[in-house]
Each structure stands twice: as C-alpha cells, then as structure tokens.
Amino acid sequence: MLKVKSEKFETTIRIVLAFVFSFVLFGVVIAICGHNPIDAFYQLFRGGFGSKFNFGSLIEDFIMILTIASAYSLTRRIGYFNLGLEGSFYLGAMFSAAPAFLLPDLPKIVIIPISLACGFIVAALYGSICGILKAYYNVNEACTTILMNYVAMFFCDFMINNVWVSPGSPIPQTPRVQENAMFAKLPLSPSRASTAIFVAFLVYIFVYFLTFRTTFGFKIRNVATNARFSDTVGMKSKRVVLATVMLSCGLGGIAGGLEVLGIYGSFIQNFSQNSAFQGIIACLLVNNNLALVPLSSFFISFTRAGGSGMEYYTGISSALIYTVTPLMILFVSMEKMFDYKRFFRFVRKIFVRNKEMNVKE
Amino acid sequence: MMKILYGMYPIDQGEIFLNGEKVDLSKYNTHSAIKHGIGMVHQEFMLVKEMTVLENIILGVEPTKRNSKMALDFTAARKKINHYIENYQMNVHLDRKVLNISVGEMQRVEIIKALYRGADVLILDEPTAVLTPQEADKLFEILDIMRKDGVTIVFISHKLKEVMAISDRISVMRGGKYVATVHKSDTTIPELAKMMVGREVFLDGKRSMVEVGEPVLQVKNVYVPSERELSKNRDISFMVRAGEVLGVAGIDGNGQSELGEAIAGLRPVEKGEIILGDKVISNKAPHYVRDCGLAHIPEDRNDRGLNKEHTVTYNLVAAEIGDAPFSKYSIISEKEMRKVSEERIERFDIRPRDPRNLAMGFSGGNAQKIVVARELGAPGKKLLLAAQPTRGVDIGSIEGIRRLIDKAKREGLGVLLISADIDEILALSDRIIVMYEGRISGEVVNDEYLTDEKLGMLMLGGEADAKS
C-alpha cells in the first residue's frame, strides 16, 4: 500500500535527478554553441558567489523569489493557478511605499510593519476579486489573474504619474520613502541586499507552519485534493479557496514591499518586469514541496545572478541559462521518466541475470 | 475482469479463446472486442442523454443510404431494431430522448445496442442493481429468450438469489482471484456465499428490536430542487425517532439522493423545514448540521466520502479537525489524530491496520468502513444518515456494515437508511418510506406481512392500498 513518506522521498529524488539531467543537457547545449561547458559552469559560479557584490545581488533576488514562492505555494496547493502575484507584487510595492512617504517620520519598528501591512491588505483585496470569481462563480483564474495583472500595473502607472508624483525624476516614480522605513543593509555592499531577508524567511516559515500545523492548513490540503469531500465533512471549501487566494496575494504584496523598502526606496515604474514569475517557477520547480522551496528559490536567484556573470565573462548569452529552469520543470513534471525504483529494478534484473549466467558457466 | 474482456483495460498476461480460436491480444481493444461479437451492458449506462434511443443504438455503427455515404438510413436501422424488440418482447420507445426514459428502459436500450452490434456474447455488469423487482423479473424473461436463441450471457452480480435464478453455470471470484465454477444444480445459496467470502456469512441476521424514543429528525413539507425533473423532491414529510431505522426505498434517481443531500446541508431546500433534535437545519452549512448531531455516510464514497489522496488518519478525523483534542488554538496535533485513528481502526476493524496508508489503496469494503468509522466514531451523534452504505462493497463487509448500522440503532441513534437495495432495506428498517418521482408514494411498517411485490408496486408509483 502507498505510504505518504515514501512518496515524499521519491519526489525529492526525482527533483535531484531532474536537476542533474538538465545541467548535463545545459552543458551539451553550451558545447554545441561552441563554448567550453566547464569554463561556463565556473563562470556561472563566479557570477553567483565570486564577489560580495555578486553574492549580494543573488540575495536581492532571493528575498523576492522566496517570498513569492511561499505565497504561490499556498494557492498551488488548491490547484489555483495564481498568476495574479505579479499584480499583487506591484500593488504591494506601491502601497507599502505610500505610508512610508505620506506619514511623518516614525521609528523603524513602527513604520515598517505599517508599510508592509498596508501593502498586504491592498494586495489581498486585489486578490479577492479573482478569488471570489473562482470560488463562487467558477471563472477560470488563469484568465482573470492575467487580466487583473494589467489592471494593477496600469493603476500603479496612473498613480505615479498623477497622484504620487516625484517631481524632477527622470522616470516616473513615487516620492522617496522616509529613511526609517528602509531595511538595514546586509554587509554585502555595494549590493543592495538588506535585512528584509529575515522577513522573507518569516513569510516562508509562516506558510510552512500554516500549511502543515494548523486547522486552516488541514482544510487547504483537503480542499486541494477533494473539495466535495471537504464540503461533506463540514469544511466550507469555497471560503477556504477565497481565504487562501487572498492570503497568497497578500504575501505577494509583502514581497513587493520588501523590494521597495529593501532595495529601491521608492516605487519605480515597471520595476518588476515579470519577476514575480520567477517565484512561481521556484515553486513549480520542486513540485510544490515546501521543504525544498528555499533551495529552489536560491537556485533560481543563483541562475539569475550567475547568468549575468557568465555573460560578462564568457560571452555566452545569459538567456541560455534561463533555459535550464524550464528544462528542469519539464523533467520534474515528467514523473514516469524518473521512476528511479523501476530503474533500480531494471539494473538489479540485469545483475541477477549476469550472476545466473556466471553460475551456469 | 469483464472490462478486460471488453477491451477497456489492457491485458498483462494470459490468453483469451473465443469460439475455439485464440484472440490476438496485442491489438485487443474495445473495437476488436465488438468485432468478435462481445457486447457489454455496463453498470453505469453508456448512453448519450441528449439523443434519442434510436440515435443511441446506432451510434458508432450508423447505417448509410446506398447512394450517399453521408445520409443516415434511419428506416433500415429502425427495421433491424424493431426486429429485436419484437423478438424479445422488449418495451422500448425509439423516438424518446434517453433523458426521459426510465432506468429499466435504458438498460433494455443497452441490450439492444449490444445486439445491434452483432454480439453473441453479452456481458451484463450488475444489471439489477438499479431495477425494481418487477423490472428485474422482466429482464430475466428477456434474457431467458435470448439464451434460447443461442446468445451467451455473462451475468455479473453479487446478489446470489439472481445468480441462482438465471445461470446455468456459476463462477465465483474473490479478491481478484478465481475461486471455482459450479453448476447451478450442484450448489446452494449459502454454499456460494461461503465460497465468496471464504467463511460462513449471515446476511439475514435478525435486526434488533429497540424501544423507540423521541423524534430526532423531522422533515416537514420539504421541496428540494434538482437538475433532473424526476428527482425534484416535492412535499416530503416524515420523521425518524431515536432507536429506529427508517428505510427510504425507491429506484435510483427518484429523489433519494437529493433528499439525503438536503438533510446533510449540501443542497438547498426550497420550501419546508428540516429539524434535527431541536434545531432547524434546512439551508444550513454542513458544518452546522454536523454539530447538531448528524453522522453522514455519503452516497458516493470515492467522491464525497473519502479523500483518497490522504491517509486513513486524515480521513478518520477530517470532520472533527476543529475540535479538541485534534487541535488547540487552530494548531493541529498529529499525535492525537494518530491516537484516535488507531483506536477507530481497531474498533471498526479496518484492514490493513496501518493508519499511514493512503485511502486510495483500500478495497470497497474497507474504504467504506473508514467512512463509517469517521461518522460513528465521533461522539455526540443523534442521527445516522446512511446513503447506499453497502453499494459496491464485498459481501463480507456488507455484513459488517449492516451490523454497525444496527448497533447504532441500539445505541439510541435515529437512522435514516437510503438504499436502492430492497434486501438491505428489508433487513435493517423498522419502517419504510418509498419514493417515486420525488414524492413519497407510501409508508409501510416492516413486518411479516410486507412483501417484495408490495414494495415493488410502491417503487413504481403504485398506491399503498395494495395491502393484501
């Protein structure tokens, strides 16, 4: 009979195998393009870890990706394809910045929570639109969330061009936030990596704890696998879906807040450029196995930072490194391909047959 | 197994012989099964509801007119089909939509469909599960004529009475394995039951007599909407008292499922009132209804009854997850869940015992026991709503589940038993109401004067005054 534990173990192995395979494939592609793969890998690592600045920019990405991946994991579990995280990322960023430049100077301990909470609430409300449509009217979320992303982005554009204008700046952005609202920098200058990383880990731990240790998480996991069952045993599945979507988008908003308060200091037009999708990919990469999400987030941020390093040193286009992650996702989703147990059985069979032959001889 | 024979599942190993010839298994599929003359009537009918009976029958093998490949030749088809209808004295309306015909008629359509494709081996999978006794008798007559015509019939059923009535030879299977084949004349029903279970069974165990108490469930003039016209509940009223089993009989699809869902809070109530204990539960959320003391064994255990992708433990405590001791301040305790589930597994004899197993690996009987254990294992229950509690369950577990329902009655619960299986209703109920086209067509006391025929009359919408 199937047991939960062995299943988890299998997925982990599968992911590792997918990882190895895609890197081998990546090496082959580089070789075909006429470069030395070993050198490319070396430069990739240098790009990620070579200097304080490189490692710092890796951490910059990591903060955002880990938060988004944790947020996405919630909705992924209930089968809700939450592409709206990009929108909540924008809204969260702008509305986290808003209190920080509108309110008078406040101590750090007060203004940062206020800012993040503000971003969280606005992003959650934004998420509730698609959540209600999905839960109560069964409208496909892939459609609504993508459309709502544009609504969110253009709304932010409108705000920074008309309401919260920063006069005299070359690109449209909000006024700068007060100095107290900014997270302290990590000792990785000249990069902009900040102590927001602790908040990112807090979000991750919160999601993990919520999913596996609370009644709400229990409900999420039940609604995820069988909503009709959940209804029957008295869970309000629709409400669970809505709450999960709102929470997820809210956490996406916090990711935006961390970006503004950790790195930029103001909301800048088009600051994201689909970076929320990197978080989504980090979650997909490990098949929504929460325990591995930090690792995969770290890996994605490594390919981003390392990729630009590699491009700089070897001339291999950084676009190439971005093909690795889709390859990995592809491999992870091909469950049957990495059915290692069958592989072992196959190997054993060959060995046994050889032994038998030896005995016969 | 029959689905393998019909080519719906691939074959791992072995050979099939048909009319003395070996069949090429490498390319064996449904299509070649039909070509070899195998026809199958599935337990769930494979009909397109929005099309007429005629269209359903010719679907896939449409006859075309001679001069054009595109034009359907309905006249020829009709002629051929009418031939079967007359031959076997089947009552089928060719021009009605399948949506609007009765279950018995659908089954006859399925049989004609198989014959129309030239089947000389007809496989019937649990054909009587959805029929009234009268309809079943009629079906047996048809099958009998067909047998005399030289059609081979494979009749799959877990109702031993029927098997004995219709078959010449009987093969017994248990747990996916072949046990034995016997001639009808050489065996008896108890002997067959023994073969099926591997030990003696007592299905017709006497139900216990209990002093009835206060009413626990009152249903007053309830109207429940449904997607199907015949299943809409209209003006339903009855009550269930503590310590009694009220059976709801009726052919599937006459509104019993809707009634059950309405009571469980899964379906809105248009008009009327449902009262459980002293609280109104109509149009309330399932959670509230459960808190009022409802134990609910849902009709479809694979869908509503169990979460197949979770462990036995999770399935056993899912309904009470918000209560102590499973959670405190919304933080769940896996330890407590494990402890209680181990206790329930032991108490309700769920096999295998390990609570970490996933629910999807269980056989029908043990899976249903998980549902029963969750519902009856929880404290503070007043009413047990059991919908088709032994559907698709092996005969050994049927016995066990029926005993548990009887035990619940002895412990003072009111039981509302919804079942399409008349034998089950008769074995367990103290009183019986019969539903027909969404109405209660009669209420009878289950005593020695009650006969199958009388119940069958009510199930077909006859009057209750056939009291003789």
TrEMBL record, chain A:
Membrane topology category: Multi-pass membrane protein
Membrane-spanning ranges: 12-33, 53-75, 87-103, 109-133, 145-165, 193-212, 240-264, 276-300, 312-334
Highest taxon of source: Bacteria
Coiled-coil positions: none
Keyword set includes Cell membrane: yes
InterPro entries documented for this protein: ABC_transp_permease
GO cellular component: plasma membrane
Keywords, ordered alphabetically: Cell membrane, Membrane, Transmembrane, Transmembrane helix
CDD domains: TM_PBP1_transp_TpRbsC_like
Broad class of the protein's primary localization: membrane
Subcellular location: Cell membrane
A matching Pfam family: BPD_transp_2
GO molecular function term, any single one: transmembrane transporter activity
PANTHER family associated with the record: ABC TRANSPORTER, PERMEASE PROTEIN, GUANOSINE ABC TRANSPORTER PERMEASE PROTEIN NUPP
Protein name in UniProt: ABC transporter permease
